[in-house]
Design goal:
By secondary structure, this protein is α/β, with parallel strands linked by helices. The protein is built from 10 helices and 16 strands. It has 2 domains: 74 residues; 306 residues, Metallo-beta-lactamase, Chain A, CATH 3.60.15.10. It is 29% helix and 17% strand. It binds 2-acetamido-2-deoxy-beta-D-glucopyranose (2 copies).
Length: 442
């Protein structure tokens, strides 16, 4: 009896992992075959349309660029099957969870990086990770220190009534960018205030084992007197902090990829717009005593993945967002979110949307390259995509905040400098900022 039980156990120890691995291999082989066949069909269709340009006849009553633009949008539309989203790019290859396990357990042990802390020095603040206060008097022109006396310390919590966008303070009409760490940026564009991927907490998760910030958040959310629009690129923890959802609530419009809406609504928020790749929404800025202003927000494809828990991998989409004003001299901004570098994709984005005035482009979390290059670009890829999208001013984000990869904590700006030299790009075109610093683009 006993021996037979042991025999059964031994068999189970062998059979279960083999069956588990076999099932996953089968799943990935099957889904990747479908994914690749979609890519082939889409490439064929795109090639057919482009080979007929410049158009003639009734089919081609639209200008050629418009036909090309529509064809590119179709080629790079989102791909969903088997209940999940997939990256429809030739550069992507399937990355199952085992790849992560291979990196984190096997390779990290061999390369002695199991407990590697990215070379972070012990002193605080870390000398080469500068931190500044945002320039609030520039952002909110008449909000001088007489309204918020220096002696009273932090200003009171901003009261954010539904639909208000925050306090009724004037906002500069300059195009400005303030980096608040990781992918959180605060952008003003023709008086509109935009907050991206809000995550200002100390840790990505309320858990002691979650990574801690290398430099504190440059300000508190309550100090951002106005937030009209929040753009959320995907649901990963370092890009979407529930504390921000609770604090901003219905005061602003939440623009998110498909599937991320329910999570935000679960906090009682109702002003949520889900945009699939290339879908647009119009946002109207209504301020007392001023003419209404219209903005177009477009979801843009990028190359990443999503998960809030082990059970919802890729059930929701990932996206970049493009905001454009319709003033006399329209201004535009793109928030790239998390993305790997795909030359085919970013050439297409450049053809559809370029040129773009301001871009927040990720430059960190890119090593080891064999694993990371698909989901996180390195600085060189970041510079290439800026060139392909014809960006006037790029700011490198997604670095120097939480360590989650193998490169040294201060490597991204150094590699960015090498990439600038290699590709003949100036620091004025593509820079990194001290956390909190406000810059004026125009
Ligand atoms: C999630 O999507 C990424 C990108 O397409 C893919 O590599 C990964 O295997 C997917 N995971 C699952 C469980 O489907
Ligand atoms: C827009 O910016 C201009 C110039 O800074 C300013 O005069 C105006 O009051 C601003 N409008 C709003 C609604 O903030």
């Amino acid at each position: 009896m006993y021996a037979a039980g042991l025999y059964g156990l031994k068999r189970a120890v062998i059979i279960l992992p083999v069956a588990w691995t076999g099932a996953w291999l089968g799943y990935y082989a099957y889904t990747d075959t479908i994914r690749r066949s979609h890519i082939r069909d889409r490439n064929d269709e795109l090639a057919k349309t482009l080979s007929r340009l410049p158009g003639e006849g009734s089919d081609f009553s639209k200008p050629a660029e418009e036909i090309e633009r529509e064809a590119l949008k179709k080629r790079y539309s989102s791909l969903k099957f088997a209940g999940r989203y997939w990256n429809p790019y030739v550069e992507w290859r399937e990355q199952g969870a085992w790849e992560w396990a291979l990196w984190k357990i096997v390779i990290s042990t061999i390369t002695l990086k199991l407990f590697y802390n990215g070379g972070v020095p012990p002193e605080r603040p870390i000398p080469d990770l500068p931190l500044e206060r945002p320039d609030f008097s520039l952002l909110y022109p008449s909000t001088t220190s007489s309204i918020y006396p220096v002696s009273s310390g932090k200003p009171d919590t901003t009261y954010r009534s539904p639909g208000s966008g925050g306090s009724d303070v004037p906002v500069t009409d300059k195009l400005t960018c303030t980096w608040l760490g990781q992918s959180t940026t605060y952008v003003t564009l023709d008086n509109l205030t935009i907050l991206t991927d809000p995550a200002l907490s100390d840790r990505t998760l309320p858990s002691r084992i979650a990574p801690q910030r290398l430099r504190p958040s440059p300000c508190e959310l309550s100090e951002l007197k106005r937030v009209d629009v929040v753009l959320v690129s995907h649901n990963h923890f370092d890009h979407l902090d529930p504390e921000a959802i609770k604090e901003l609530g219905d005061s602003c419009e939440w623009v998110v990829p498909p599937g991320v809406g329910p999570f935000i609504r679960s906090f009682g928020v109702t002003r949520v717009t889900e945009l699939d790749w290339w879908q647009e929404t119009k946002h109207t800025l209504s301020r007392p005593g001023q003419k209404d202003k219209e903005f177009t927000i477009t979801a843009v494809p990028n190359m990443h993945w999503s998960a809030r828990s082990p059970l919802d991998t890729n059930a929701t989409l990932w996206a970049a967002f493009h905001v454009k004003s319709h003033s006399e001299k329209p201004k535009s901004f793109i928030h790239l979110g998390d993305t790997g570098y795909s030359p085919t994709l970013y050439h297409a984005v450049g053809r559809v949307l370029g040129p773009i005035d301001l871009a927040a482009i990720p430059i960190g979390s890119y090593e080891p390259r064999w694993h990371m290059h698909l989901q996180h670009t390195d600085p060189e890829g970041a510079v290439r995509m800026a060139l392909q999208m014809k960006v006037g001013k790029s700011v490198g984000v997604h670095w120097g905040t939480w360590l989650m990869s193998d490169e040294a904590y201060n490597k991204p700006p150094l590699d960015l400098e090498l990439a600038r030299q290699k590709l003949d790009v100036t620091e004025d075109q593509f820079c990194v900022l001290p956390a909190g610093k406000t810059i004026v683009i125009e």
